[in-house]
Design a protein that fits this description.
Helix content is 20%, strand content 29%. It is α+β, with helices and mostly antiparallel strands. It contains 14 helices and 37 strands. Helix 10 packs parallel to helix 11 and helix 11 packs parallel to helix 12. Helix 8 links the parallel strand 26 and strand 27. It folds into 3 domains: 317 residues, Beta-galactosidase, Chain A, domain 5, CATH 2.70.98.60; 218 residues, TIM Barrel, CATH 3.20.20.70; 95 residues, Sandwich (Immunoglobulin-like). Bound molecules: (2R,3S,4R,5S)-2-(hydroxymethyl)piperidine-3,4,5-triol (DGJ). The site of (2R,3S,4R,5S)-2-(hydroxymethyl)piperidine-3,4,5-triol has 11 residues, from loops.
């Protein structure tokens, strides 16, 4: 890993053993992009700046009369608006004169060891010897706007992170109208666009679409990530597959309005912009003030989409998930929601815990309905006082009863929300998000609290702290069940209303930061009507995120496989529920491709199901390290193959493999040996179920034959696992 500047050529070269990223300073200080891809040696890369004669209508760059250089054509690192680049710009600043022309010029650089934190924002971290950071300094001489671009490369990963800090060093106020985190100008459009789309109960569905001339984008304006699109996109070379070919993956470490925008110009060169969606964004910078963008993560893989995913997984596990629970063995939990919904009391929960304990489950989560007058979803959000009448005593008494059975206790919160029918709303109607003079739109009978306000956050922190310190709470499920409309704050002046959405997210991060610092032992799981806030920003605070309210095991395969494109399996919340579509074995095997847990009434399980659960609990412990630390391989894709869904975990030393097959629908031809991946060709693996010994090379080239394993007529929804161990 190194970052070097060649004074002679004006080229910065960032190298790891998996990627090279190069950029240069051209002419009077234009920061130009040169290269992003597999490692290349130190040669003169300046020719990569040129993209042929520029067209007659394109302006020369200010201060440069070179028919081969125009801001309109050449690849740039952080293009600003208005000086002759007509592609989408990374930065647009409305200056005191009322125009938005900005012309950034390079003024200097610094290189530091390690990875700086970003103020108020989740961001990757690294020890001093694990990463190096380049900071480039730019300035617009007319407005005095200064920009610092941060680039970090990490020793062990094919990953680059980028962010920008914009400072008003001039004498007059300016307004940021767009401030993306990073721009990537690539040289060819020979790519497909891979992204994740969905909706409630269908989150993270993978799509692969051709790249087109013009603009495309993956965006959210919901105030939150939302289930509709994920802040992720990959450009996969046309011939790239799951295992081969070049793939660039991009994500934004953020939980609010995001944009991963693409513009492919007439030369067929795509520009990728990653950052906050500019559509509802305005940020006033008074002289001396600065703004820091969220962090963009860029991954390069020459081993297809699978290689990209494994790079993201490792990187997030080691450099983004900051919770101690990211690396510590997590408790196996059972959640009360699908078992009882709002219909529970203390005795029922204790009964769940007693049954759960017998099955080997470690932790009981009391979901929605424990506070205020909350017997359905019409009221009481905001009244975070324990309903002792419902629980049959204090929270401490209930938790002690559960703990006495040897079961830990977790609790549900939806801190950002407020029902109009709540004591909190009656006391502070102005705390709900609203636009003056307009009716508030409800969703699930609730409004959103104005998280931009310090007093609101202090109230929530105080109430949560009181409850969390009153009993032995080991886990929180942080839910969020609606998006933001009538988005405005009564506390912000008119000229700062454009800051509302970003300030909202910063407010959520502030509260999450305070809670996780005050209660570091508590395992935080994020949730938003399922996977509606599945993003790297949340991953920073909560090492697991509920994947979906859809617990149908077959539909879950598409959701979990999609999420695995960029998120580690150890982060994908997955439970066995009472869903009847398949037997409990398959529900268990699907949930094992995630955090694993239960979402049912354990007292209603049949003796055979209880026996199956005990086996699943044993499997959870046996394979925990393999699943949490191993490499994940998608062997088929449920969006492409409607019949068989196969996947595999391989231990880091390649001595252990856990293979799983789910028969989504019985195929006509069941003789389909599955080639395994990522094994050691020289090792010999024993199948623990059959005792058969296979060579790693054979398993990868001839495959594992399971045509007899399901009997003569395999049932839809059947599944199996195979644990293969190298001698
Ligand atoms: C939505 C979540 O996705 C569910 O798991 C559950 O916690 C409910 N909210 C509770 O209201």
């Amino acid at each position: 890993m190194s970052i070097r500047f060649d004074e002679q050529t004006g080229i910065f070269k960032l190298d790891t053993d998996k990627l090279t990223y190069a950029l240069g300073v051209f002419g009077p200080g234009y920061l130009t992009h040169l290269y992003f891809g597999p490692p290349v040696p130190d040669t003169d890369l300046r020719y990569l700046l040129y993209r042929g004669w520029f067209d007659s209508l394109s302006p020369y760059a200010p201060g440069v009369e070179d028919p081969l250089f125009s801001l309109d054509i050449n690849p740039l690192e952080y293009p600003a608006n208005g000086a002759g680049d007509f592609r989408i710009s990374a930065l647009s600043v409305r200056n005191a004169d009322g125009n938005s022309v900005t012309d950034l010029r390079y003024t200097g650089y610094t290189v530091t060891r390690g990875k700086p934190a970003l103020p108020g924002l989740p961001a990757a971290f690294a020890a001093e010897d694990e990463a190096e950071t380049l900071t480039l300094h730019l300035e617009d001489p007319v407005t005095g706007v200064r920009v610092q671009l941060l680039y970090t490369v990490f020793a062990e990963a094919g990953v680059l992170t980028r962010s920008a800090r914009i400072e008003n060093a001039g004498a007059a106020p300016v307004v940021l109208e767009r401030a993306y985190s990073a721009c990537f100008d690539l040289p060819t459009m020979n790519f497909d666009l891979v992204h994740l789309w969905g909706k409630w109960a269908k989150e993270n569905t993978t799509a692969r679409d051709p790249l087109m001339h013009g603009r495309q984008g993956i965006r959210s304006r919901r105030g939150m990530t939302g289930p509709n699109h994920n802040p992720f996109l990959a450009l996969a070379a046309k011939d790239a597959t799951e295992d081969t070919g070049e793939v660039y993956g991009f994500q934004l470490v953020y939980s609010g309005n995001f944009a991963l925008d693409l513009e492919t110009d007439t030369r067929g060169c795509p520009r990728v912009l990653v950052g906050i969606d500019p559509e509802d964004f305005r940020w006033l910078l008074e002289p001396g003030e600065s703004f820091t963008t969220p962090e963009a993560v860029a991954v390069f893989s020459d081993q297809g989409l699978g290689g990209m995913s494994r790079t993201f997984h490792r990187f997030y596990r080691n450099h983004l998930m900051r919770s101690p629970w990211a690396k510590k063995k997590r408790p196996l939990l059972i959640n009360s929601w699908e078992a009882a919904y709002f219909d529970f009391d203390g005795d029922k929960l204790v009964a769940f815990a007693r049954e759960a304990k017998e099955l080997g489950i470690d932790l009981l989560v009391m979901d929605d309905g424990w506070f205020g007058d909350r017997f359905d979803d019409h009221r009481a959000l905001g009244d975070w006082q324990v309903n002792e009448a419902k629980l049959g005593g204090t929270l401490k008494q209930l938790v002690d009863r559960v703990n006495a059975l040897g079961v830990q206790f977790g609790i549900w919160y939806e801190p950002e929300m407020i029902n109009p029918d709540s004591d909190l709303y009656r006391a502070h109607p102005d705390w709900a998000v609203c636009a003056p003079g307009r009716e508030k739109s409800l969703s699930r009978h609730q409004c959103v609290l104005d998280m931009t306000r310090r007093d609101v956050r202090d109230y929530l922190f105080g109430e949560m702290t009181r409850v969390l310190s009153s009993a032995n709470i080991a886990y929180i499920k942080w839910d969020c069940n609606r998006n933001l409309s009538e988005a405005a704050s009564l506390q912000l002046p008119p000229e700062r209303q454009g800051e509302f959405f970003h300030r909202y997210v910063l407010g959520v991060y502030d509260l999450m930061d305070r809670i996780t610092r005050a209660f570091p032992h508590i395992l935080l799981e994020n949730c938003s009507s399922g996977g509606g806030r599945f993003d790297p920003g949340m991953l920073y605070f909560s090492p697991q995120i509920w994947g979906s309210d859809n617990t149908d095991p077959i539909e879950r395969l598409t959701i979990q496989f999609g999420a695995s494109l960029c998120y580690p399996i150890s982060a994908i919340g997955a439970h066995v529920s009472a869903n009847p579509r398949t037997g409990i074995e398959t529900r268990g095997n699907v949930a094992l491709c995630g955090t694993f847990g239960y979402e049912l009434d354990p007292g209603k399980l049949t003796p055979a199901e209880k026996a199956a659960v005990k086996e699943q609990v044993a499997a959870y412990h046996r394979y925990y390290d393999l699943i949490h630390e191993g490499d994940f391989y998608r062997l088929t894709a449920p969006t492409e193959d409607p019949f068989l869904c196969d996947w595999e975990f391989v231990s880091p030393d390649r001595s252990e493999v856990l293979f799983t097959r789910v028969v989504m629908r019985r195929p006509d031809n069941f003789y389909q040996p599955r080639r395994l991946k990522g094994l050691d060709p020289d090792k010999f693996y024993t199948d623990e179920t059959t005792g058969q010994v296979y060579s790693g090379a054979l398993l990868m080239h001839a495959g594992l034959d399971l045509s007899l394993a399901f009997g003569r007529l395999p049932q839809d929804g059947a599944s199996l696992t195979r644990h293969l161990v190298a001698r």
